[in-house]
User: Fold these one by one.
Assistant:
Number 1:
Amino acid sequence: MLLILIAVLLSSLFYYVQAFKYGLSAKRWALAGLIAGPMLLPIFTAKKRMAVRKATGFNSIFLRA
């Protein structure tokens, strides 16, 4: 039980920091991380990718170093 609680809290912190970094609503993602935990990762990754594509444009190249 303690391991599940730690995983949910760490994932909430992870989603908060990453959402803040990519310009998404950080509080909303932190709350969703508290509710869904690590199972939210595919949805978060898709939203993050859409936000980056929206900011850079769909016909541009985005290179990660």
Note: The chain is about 75% helix and 0% strand.
Number 2:
Amino acid sequence: MSDTLVDARGLRCPLPVIRLAAAAKGLPAGTELTVLSTDPAAKHDVPAWCRMRGHEHVETREHHTGDRGDEDRDAGADNTPGDEGPDDEGWDETDNEGWDGWAVTVRLG
């Protein structure tokens, strides 16, 4: 379950990670955040940020325009499905139509 959603679609590196760090500031350990990004670097930068900050990379889901829940998951990641966060209007697996990119979920350590 993702507690917080960070919509960084349309933003280029390093802004998705900067937005993630700002959203994570002050949140308790165990909180999950999902970053939505169209920047190809985010699928690598967010897990690297987790490693450097002592957080856990939970999963990365790739989305393609027109997909209805089809996803590619990172090998070795805990592929627990994300859920909507309190700050969004209910993003779920079917809301990926119309954008190409990644949903990267992290758990704060």
Note: The beta strands are 4-8, 32-37, 56-63, 101-107.
Number 3:
Amino acid sequence: MGVLTIHLAASEVATYMAGAGEVPAAPASDDTSASVWLLVVITLLGSSVLAGFITSVLGNLRAAATARREGYANAVRSLIARGEYPYRVRRRVSDDADVLSALVERGHDLQEQLAACRTWVASEHRVLGRLFESALAGIDTTVGPAIQDAWGTPPISAAMGMNLNGWGPGDQWHHVAKLERAITYRFGWRRLVPSRLWSRWICRP
């Protein structure tokens, strides 16, 4: 109820009593009137503060969810990039210094990204940290040897050579699948589900 509404209601009561031949009773004291207005002001201020608090909380929750979504998206991208790196090395078109330097630089950047993602995911959620480590270890079982083999293979000099005919570590998505399923439990209503309930079936072999 706003201040104007309260004031109008009081005026209507006074008009009604005057029409009935009665004179509205004067306030017992100025303190009573002051107390009423103080109560009205506190109520209005309290409503504004509560609304502001709720808006702030909802805004913080949205911001946290956005940051969490970006963090997990970056983690998955880094794992996929790790699985694709051997193909980049294998499909290099020369062993010139600038080509080799670019590939080495990308390899170093990828290692840094993976290290940062490992730290972030582990700090964000313990179960997902273990799943990230498991996915990375699974990818490296085939990607590591493939990278060594790619560096030992001559560069490709013709377009037909880009067709690797089955060479390479293959699709690594099955290593990321468990992590992807677990990530869904960090958003929406699933966040309310305790990790001990969903981690059992996600983490099983």
Note: The helical segments are 3-19, 30-90, 97-124, 126-151, 173-183, 195-203.
Number 4:
Amino acid sequence: MNKSIRALFLAAAVCLPASAAFAADASAPAASAAPADSATLASVLKLTSAQQQKIKTIRDAEQKQIAAVDTSKIEPGVIQGMIKSGKWDEAQAKQRIRAVGEVDNQVTYIRAKALFDIGQVLTAEQKQHFQSLFAKELAAD
């Protein structure tokens, strides 16, 4: 059950979709957020193979860090159990929500740091182009 919770959080933590679009595989289609329909972000930004390798390393480390986030404090089925039983436990509900928030904050931090690290790999021109491509996502900060 712990793995399904982790998978849920990984899927829900798409708060920075731009970092996912940085897949280093230049043959993969771009994320739907990117304006270029069939081009990859690597080709749109004209990333060198060295940049792509550095970004792949960052993304691999990001995924490992996210997979290592401790979700053990998230007790599955707490809210659902209260709804089924008809008995609300305020303390237990708040603890569950707090635990979910902690995991979400950790994943958000990891993704934001990876996005920052990826930005350090880009040239000034690539950064400017990236910021224009993902203005909406970056404005959510």
Note: The chain has a mean pLDDT of 78.
